[in-house]
Amino acid sequence: MTAITAQHAATALPEGGLHTQRIGALDFETGGHLPEVELAYETWGTLNAEASNAVLVLHALTGSTHVASSTAITEEGWWEGVVGPGCAIDTDRWFVVAPNVVGGCYGTTGPSSLDPEGIPWGSRFPFTTIRDSVHAEARLADALGISRWHAVVGGSMGGARALEWAATYPERVAGMAVIACGAHSTAEQIAFAQAQIQAITLDANFRGGDYYPGPTPDGGLGIARKIAHITYRSQPDMDGRFGRGAQPEEDPFGQPLRRQGRYQVESYLDYQAAKLVKRFDANSYLVLTEALMSHDVSRGRGTEAEVLAAITATPFITAVESDRLYFPGQSQELARQLPGENPVYMIDSPVGHDGFLTDLDQVAADLKRVLGL
Amino acid sequence: MTAITAQHAATALPEGGLHTQRIGALDFETGGHLPEVELAYETWGTLNAEASNAVLVLHALTGSTHVASSTAITEEGWWEGVVGPGCAIDTDRWFVVAPNVVGGCYGTTGPSSLDPEGIPWGSRFPFTTIRDSVHAEARLADALGISRWHAVVGGSMGGARALEWAATYPERVAGMAVIACGAHSTAEQIAFAQAQIQAITLDANFRGGDYYPGPTPDGGLGIARKIAHITYRSQPDMDGRFGRGAQPEEDPFGQPLRRQGRYQVESYLDYQAAKLVKRFDANSYLVLTEALMSHDVSRGRGTEAEVLAAITATPFITAVESDRLYFPGQSQELARQLPGENPVYMIDSPVGHDGFLTDLDQVAADLKRVLGL
Q1: Where in chain B is the domain with CATH 3.40.50.1820?
Q2: Under a CB-based contact definition with an 8 Å cutoff, are residues B148 and B313 in contact?
Q3: Residue B20 vs residues A246, B2, B33, B41, B116: alpha-carbon distances, Å
C-alpha cells in the first residue's frame, strides 16, 4: 500500500458519488490472499482540512455503497433521510464515506471480480471475515487521508463491522454506532445462515461457485433470500399484512394435483426473492453470509468481557424491539460489557430486524447527541 | 366403503400393534381422487362393548402411528409416557387409535404408494388438505365400529386435525385437545413452509416428484428439515446449547477458501436432517406441508368466529410458552372464540414448539381432568 499524506489525499478527494480505490494485495484472516483488491465507495459532504469530520457508514449483508441520494446519484438510498443535508448524519457538516464490503458485488472486489488473468474468482475467492473487511476499509481510510473517524456507524452486518473497527483500530474510531447487532453471531443466526448457504449450493446452476458466465443459481439464492427475509420481519407484521389470504386471481386450492395458486405471503416472498436475484451475486451472498457468521469481536483477543471492556470508542447501541434475529437482549449484553453505563436505544417498530432501516429516525436525535454528530 | 356394524367391528378388533385398513376410494377436497386408500394405524388398550372408550391420537407433520411403545412394538414412541398403562391417556382404560395421515409414509397411502398399475403415485398424488385426512380417518372409525371418540388429541399438525375433526363431525367428537396449534395456518407458517417446499423442488433429484426408484432429493429435504427444526426450537435453547462453538475437531475458520469445518449448531442440524432423510419421503413431506398450510377450520363454513362458536366438543387448548412458530397468542385466539371460558394451558418449556412433545407432562393432569380421561 502506498502511504498518502492527509494533505495529499484531501486535495485529491472526490466530490461525492461513486469511486473506487485500489488498496493493493490483501491477506485474509484465515489464510486466503488476493493480489489486488479494489474498494468501491460513495461519499457525501466535504472532508475538512484537519480530516476530523469523517464518518464511516457500513452497509448490511446485501447493502451497497448507496446509503442516500446525492447530486451525483439521485436514486434513493437504503438509509435515505438518515444521511444527507440536515439529516441525522448531516452532510453539510460531516464527510460521509460508505464502502462496499470486501466480497460484495457493488464495485468492491468480490467473487464475480476478475483475477489478473481475466477469469472470475468464483470458488477461489478467499473465505472472508468481518475483520478482513475492516482491514481493507482501513486502507481506504489511509488512502483518503482519514486517520480517525469521528464515528463508524452500521446496522446488522454493518454493526458487526462498526464494532470490529472499534476493537481493531481503537485509535482510529472516536465513536461507534452498533445497530441491531450483538458482539458475536449466535447459534440461531448461524443456523438460519447455514440453511441459506445450502440452498444456494444445492442449485444445479451453482457448480461449486464457478457458474460465470453461465446461468446463475437464482433458485437457490431466491430461497436463501426468502428465509432471510422472513427472519428480518416479525410474525405480527407478516400476519397483519397477509394473513392466510390468497394472491388476487390465484387459488392455492385450485388444482387437484400440485397447486398453482399462491398465498399472498408467498407472492410477497417471490417478489422479494426476484428483486434480490436481479441485483445480487449468489457467490457474494454466500461469502458475506459466511463473513457474518464469523462475527465474533473477541476471537483471538481474550474473553468477550475483556475485549469489550477495552473498547475506547464512545458507543451508541440500538436495537429493534420486535427483532427476532438480532434480539434486543444481544444488544443489551453488548452494552453491558462496554465501559460505562450504556443504555440500549430501542426502536419501537413492529416490523422486526428491518426496523433499523425503516425506523432509525426514532433514535436519530440520540444518535446525534451521543456521538456528537 | 363397506358398512360395518359396531358389533362386527368390535369382535374383529386388533389386539394392539400396527394394522392397516382399506377405506375404499377417496375424493379429495380440491378435486383429486384415489381409487383405493389404505390407512395404517396402531392401537393400544381394548375397545369396550359400547365402543365408548375410544381416543384418537393424531401425529404431527413427520410423525407416525407409533405414539408409544406396546407389547406388540417395544420401540419408544414420539409421545412415550403420554399414552400407555397408567399414563395421562391410560391404555388400561382407553382404547387408543393412532392413524398415519393420508399422504404420509408410515403405511397409509401416500405419494410413494403404488397405483393400481404398480407405479408410485409421485407427482400424481392429489393435493391434500387437513380436511381430507379427517374424512379418511372417519372411515377408519367406521371400520373400527367407533361412532364417537371420547377425545381426539393432537399437537401441531395433529392439533389441526383434532380441531378439524370437531368441526367436521361434531356428533363424533366428545372432547378435543388442540395442542400448539391455532385455528388456521398463519402468514409466517406459510412463509417458512414455502421456503421448505422450494428447497425440495430445487433438488435436481426431485424430478417434479417422480423420482422413484431413483436417487431421492435428500439435499432439498435436508434443508427443509433444517429450516423447520430451527423454527421448532427456541433461540435461547439453541444458543444455550451451542452458542457459536465449533464442532470438536472441526474448524469453521480452517480453510483459506471455502471452509470445511462446521459450527456445533450446524453439525446438530446436519444430524437432524440426516435422521429425517433416512426415515421420511420427500413427496410426503411436501404433500403434508401443503396440507398443514391449508389448515383453516373456517374455510367454506362461515367466519372463524361462527365456526368456532359452534364447536360442541369439550376443548382442551395448550400452547408452549417459548413457541415461536405456533405462538401462544394463536392458541389464545382459538380458545377465546370457542364456546364458554377456556383457559389456555401453558407448557413452560424453554425449547420452543417441540415442547409439546417433550414437556406435555406439565399439563397432563389438566388434560385428564378437562377431557375426563
Answers
A1: 6-186+295-371
A2: no
A3: 37, 15, 20, 6, 17
Whether residue B244 and residue A184 make contact (CB cut-off 8 A), yes or no, is yes
CA A125 to each of CA A105, A158, A182, B312: distance values in angstroms, whole numbers, following the listed order: 13, 21, 27, 63
Among A115, A123, A127, the residue to mutate for chain B (most B Cβ within 10 A): A127
Question: Pairing relation of β-strands B95-99 and B33-44?
Answer: antiparallel
- Amino acid identity, position B118: G
Number of neighbouring beta carbons within 10 Å of residue B76: 11
- Please give the pLDDT value at position B1: 36
Q: Which residues pair with A317 in a beta bridge?
A: A178, A344
Chain B nearest CA to A202, separation (Å) = 6
Q: Contact, B77 vs B69, CB < 8 A? A: yes
Q: Are A67 and A83 in contact (CB under 8 A)?
A: yes
Please report the DSSP string for B72-113 in residue order: S--S--TTBTTEETTSSEETTT-EEEEEPPTT-SSSS--TTS
3-state secondary structure of A367: helix
Q: Residue B364 and residue B369: Cα distance in Å, rounded?
A: 9
Return the beta strands (E) in B109-184 as ranges. Answer: 151-155, 175-179
pLDDT at B334: 98
| B296: DSSP letter | B
pLDDT digits over A61-115, tens only? 999 999 999 999 999 999 999 999 999 999 999 999 999 999 999 999 999 999 9
Q: How far apart are CA A174 and CA A45, in angstroms?
A: 19
User: Does residue B190 contact residue B213 with C-beta atoms inside 8 Å?
Assistant: no
Q: Quick one: which H or E segment has residue A207?
A: none
B255: closest chain A residue by CA: A30
pLDDT of residue A25: 98
Instruction: Look up residue B30 and give its three cell numbers.
Output: 380440491
Q: What is the CATH number of domain B189-292?
A: 1.10.1740.110
Residue among A323, A331, A349, A354 flagged as catalytic: A323
Instruction: Provide the angle, in degrees to the nearest 10, between the axes of the packed helices A218-232 and A187-202.
Output: 160
pLDDT at B12 over 70: no
Superfamily of A6-185+296-371 according to CATH: Alpha/Beta hydrolase fold, catalytic domain (3.40.50.1820)
Residues spanned by CATH 1.10.1740.110 within chain A?
189-292
Closest CA to A33 of A109, A84, A142: A109
pLDDT digits (tens, 9 = 90+) for A23-32: 999 999 999 9
| Grid coordinates given for A136 | 481493507
Q: Which residue has the cell 383405493?
A: B36
Cβ atoms within 10 Å of B45's Cβ, excluding its own: 22
State the complex-level ipTM.
0.92
- Strand order from edge to edge, sheet including A344-347: A17-27, A33-44, A95-99, A54-58, A151-155, A175-179, A314-320, A344-347
The residues of B carrying an active-site annotation are 156, 323, 353
pLDDT over threshold 90, residue A10: no
Query: Best of B115, B184, B230, B250 to disrupt the A interface by mutation (most A CBs within 10 Å)?
Result: B230
| Contact by Cβ (8 Å): B192, A230 | yes
Positive or negative: CA dihedral B313, B371, B289, A242: positive
Question: Can you tell me the mean pLDDT for B229-246?
Answer: 93
Cβ–Cβ < 8 Å for B246, B262: yes
The CATH number that domain B6-186+295-371 falls under is 3.40.50.1820
DSSP string, A39-81: EEEEEES---TTS--EEEEE--TT--S--S--SS--S--TTBT
